[in-house]
Amino acid sequence: MDLKRTSRVVITNGVIACLVGLLMVVWPGATAEVVVRIFAGWLAVIAVASLVFAPKGGRSGSMVARSVLLVLLAALIFFSPMFFAAFVTILTGFAIIFFGFLGVMVSLFMRRMGASAWWLLTVIGVLGIILGGFFLFAPEAGVTTLIFTLAIFIFVVGIALVALGRRLHKTADAIRHDPRRNPPDDGGDVISGEIIE
């Protein structure tokens, strides 16, 4: 694996993610439609960048297929942004309600077992059910909440990718300068042979 090239891919994707996250948060007067289209553009750029900057010999059929599918998904999101936003909001609402009910059930089980902090999980579960209902019955506000959550998540992922890319770059430099991996070529004789057991 070419660590230098891989680190460049990771850092590029991380910087793009940070910029997209910031753009989604600070774009003045941005509507949900604009932000979802920005997200679609980010998906497409990530797909193309991963393919273009792939390590030599690393462009397998599965990587190409994955990139093409990401571009197609980005196009679908770009041309029907509000459908995507509403769909994700509804799914998120159902998921939060499900986990809220699950938290309440677990808390009641913990109460029967004698755990003293059972009420905390009950409060979290009830708040989750209320939040999920908010996503289902106030979809416009739910979309806005999701957008800001998604923007923060993308920004954090971007920072993590940049940090990982820098670590990969340092590792590649350390490997390149390691005398045990790359013995100096001083022009001396090299003796080769085989070991007989």
Residue ranges: pLDDT <50 for 5 or more in a row? none
In round numbers, the mean pLDDT is: 79
Tally of discrete structural domains:
1
Classify the secondary structure makeup into a structural class: mainly alpha
How much of the polypeptide forms β-strand, as a percent range? under 5%
> If helices are DSSP runs of H or I spanning 4 or more residues, what is the number of helices?
6
Helix coverage percent: over 70%
Describe the global form: extended
Question: Whole-Å distance between the termini?
Answer: 34 Å
Rg of Cα set: 25 Å
Order of helices and strands: HHHHHH
Secondary structure tally: strands: 0
Largest sheet: none
Please tag this protein with its features.
79% helix; 6 helices; mainly alpha; 197 residues
Give the topology, please.
Elements: H1 3-26, H2 32-52, H3 61-79, H4 81-113, H5 118-137, H6 139-176
Summarize the structure in short.
With about 200 residues, the protein is mostly helical. Helix content is about 80%, strand content about 0%.
Characterization of this structure:
The protein has six helices and no strands. With 197 residues, the chain is mainly α. The chain has one domain (3-176). Helix 1 packs antiparallel against helix 6. The chain is extended. The two termini are 34 Å apart.
